[in-house]
Every structure is written in C-alpha cells, then in structure tokens.
Amino acid sequence: MTVTIAIASGKGGTGKTTIAANLAVALSRFGKNVIVLDADIAMANLELILGLEGKPVTLNDVLAGTADIEEAIYEGPGGVKVVPAGISLERFRRANPERLEEVLTKLNEKADILIIDCPAGLGKDALVALSAAENLIVVVNPEISSISDALKIIAVARRLETNVLGAIINRVSNDSTELSAKAIETILEIPIMGIIPEDPNVRRSAAFGEPIVLRYPDSPAAQAIMEIAAKLVGKQ
Ligand code: ADP
Ligand code: MG
Question: What ipTM did this prediction achieve?
C-alpha cells in the first residue's frame, strides 16, 4: 500500500514545495521508495528546486490526456522519483485537474510513500489534490494570517475525510512577534510535526536546483526536515 501525503497550506509561499521536495528526498534517504508529485500545476516549481526542469512529458500532459503517468515519472536527486507538472502555460491550459484522482490511483502501489505538493488555497485544483490524498500535512508560518488560513484547510480536509497528520511550522526565527509553537498547536488543535527555522540555505540550495538536505545537510533547515522524516518512518 502506498501512503499518500498532501502537503498543503491556505496561504501561498509558506514553504510547501520546499518541504514536499526535501521531505521526499529525506524519506528516500531512509530507504523508502518515494514519489513526489507536483499538483500545483499552475505554478509548478517542484522541478526547479529538484533540478529537473524541461522534461519532455509532465503531469500537465497526463492531465490533458495526451500521455500516460508512467511516462512522467523521473529519477530525481537522492533516489527520489519525481512527477513534474511542467512550466509550459500552453500545456497547462489543456490540463484537466479532475483527472488527478485517477492519476493518483494509478500511482498507488508504485511507491511506499507518495508526497503531493499542493497548490495554495481552496481552488478546484487544491480540492482535488486534498480529497485524493489519504493524509494531510499543513505547512504554516508563525503568523496569525497563516494560521487562520490553515484552519480552513484543516476543516475542508476533515469534510473530505482526509486524515490530518499535523502541521509543520516553517520559517521560524524566534522573533518576539511570532506565534509560539504552543500557541499554534492550541489554535489548530493538531500535532506539531516539526519546526523549520528561517534559513538562507533554503534559497541558496534552490538557486542550485538541489534539495537542501543534500546540498547543505548540516544546515538548520535540512536538519529539521531530516528529523521530521525520521519521525515519519519511526526511526527516532
Ligand atoms: P510554497 O510552495 O508554499 O509557495 P515555497 O516552498 O516555494 O513555498 O517557498 C516560498 C519561498 O520561501 C521560496 O523562495 C523559498 O526559498 C523560501 N523559503 C521556504 N522555506 C524557507 C526557510 N525555512 N527559510 C528561508 N526561506 C524559505
Ligand atoms: Mg509551491
């Protein structure tokens, strides 16, 4: 059985793609067979941070009905398998997000863990991804607008019968204006799965098209992500 985990947030820019990519690589490093899929088909950037841009067949082609999902799976860094969405606007226009559910069913059994990098918000594409996944991890930043948006995602996930695993708090700098992890846990009423600090190495590794857990494994953000992965596979 493949465990599917959607990485979502209400707000854009919370760090979903960074976390989806690096968590997938980290889980592969722990010996899991992992596929990471870019369901943010309008703003595809998973392939950019994994150094896989410009692939001939992408998820958009599969959702347009012109390719099979097997053709859109690529070998990525650290042994992870990647389904890029494709950054071509033309191909995106022909994609039908409703086909995603069928695509995810086909990916079942092809991996131990399937990580889905979701679009922000609650548009149709996000809802399809959320309902097709069995589990959800919500990515939040330690500020009230992010937390209030996360509450909506959690409520919708519950309505869709998607299991909420917990939240990851990203970009924490321990500034006095930030909400504490305790406060966030109290408001969201879900477990906090990890805290990732604000770390300039995140942007630096993205610029190289390499996941931070491989490029800067000793950096604070990489360590935090490895810890979350270790907990997920029960290696801690
Ligand atoms: P999303 O997929 O939620 O839109 P991204 O993963 O693309 O978010 O991240 C948005 C921006 O924030 C990117 O420029 C990324 O490099 C930066 N970023 C994400 N997490 C961190 C972090 N922990 N420290 C510093 N910058 C970060
Ligand atoms: Mg993203």
Answer: 0.99
Number of domains observed in the structure of the chain:
1
202 is in which domain, residue-wise? Answer: 3-39+101-232
Instruction: Give CA–CA dist 66/62, Å, rounded.
Output: 6
Torsion of the alpha carbons at 177, 181, 183 and 184, rounded to the nearest 10? 100
CATH number at residue 27: 3.40.50.300
For the Cβ of 44 lying below 6 angstroms from any atom of ligand 1, the answer is no
67 found inside a domain: no
Query: How many whole angstroms separate alpha carbon 213 and alpha carbon 90?
Result: 33
Q: Is residue 153 part of a domain?
A: yes
| Tokens 């924490």, located at residue | 172
Regarding pTM above 0.90, the answer is: yes
Q: Quick: pLDDT tens for 184-222.
A: 999 999 999 999 999 999 999 999 999 999 999 999 999
Residue 73 lies in a domain: no
Q: How far apart are CA 132 and CA 199, in angstroms?
A: 32
Cα 46 to ligand 2 centroid, rounded to whole Å: 7
Question: Closest-lying ligand to the alpha carbon of 206?
Answer: 1
Ligand 1 pocket check for 171: Cβ under 6 Å = yes
11 labelled ligand-binding: yes
Question: 14: Cβ below 6 Å to ligand 1?
Answer: yes
